[in-house]
Recover the amino acids of this structure.
């Protein structure tokens, strides 16, 4: 690396992460997913906690309402709470996040004149409960996000 990039390799680099890695990711997306993206469309984070913090800070303001699985990974919950939203718990059963409760909470918020900014879920091997969100519930969750104009953070 020092031979190829010299002193620049010792700098902090771009805020979005190492460009060479982002270029490789773009190539893999084109090859395996048939998606044409550019390095400017990617951010390389320093672990999942960093990525979650970036996403939450981009979309959630203090006092906003978000829905989150309960239970959920304690580290993520701590990261979410540091950004100051009101977190509404959604239960998890053997099929993952209970989407009928999601609908109830979204409808209740709508009646109160409030909007849910995002829904946080771990769809595969939910931590700490363990189930994966079923295909039926995944489709329901996406439909709810469209209907109630909110985001899903997975």
């Amino acid at each position: 690396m020092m031979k190829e990039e010299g002193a620049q390799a010792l700098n902090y680099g771009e805020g979005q992460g190492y460009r060479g890695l982002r270029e490789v990711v773009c190539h893999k997306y084109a090859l395996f997913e048939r998606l044409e993206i550019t390095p400017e469309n990617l951010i390389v984070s320093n672990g999942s906690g960093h990525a979650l913090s970036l996403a939450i800070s981009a979309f959630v303001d203090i006092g906003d309402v978000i829905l989150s699985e309960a239970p959920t990974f304690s580290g993520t919950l701590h990261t979410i709470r540091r950004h100051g939203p009101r977190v509404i718990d959604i239960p998890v059963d053997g099929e993952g996040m209970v989407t009928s409760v999601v609908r109830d909470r979204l409808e209740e918020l709508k009646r109160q004149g409030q909007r849910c900014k995002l829904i946080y879920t771990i769809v595969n091997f939910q931590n700490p409960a363990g189930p994966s969100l079923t295909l039926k519930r995944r489709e329901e969750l996406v439909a709810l996000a469209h209907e109630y104009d909110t985001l899903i953070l997975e």
Observations:
- The radius of gyration is 18 Å.
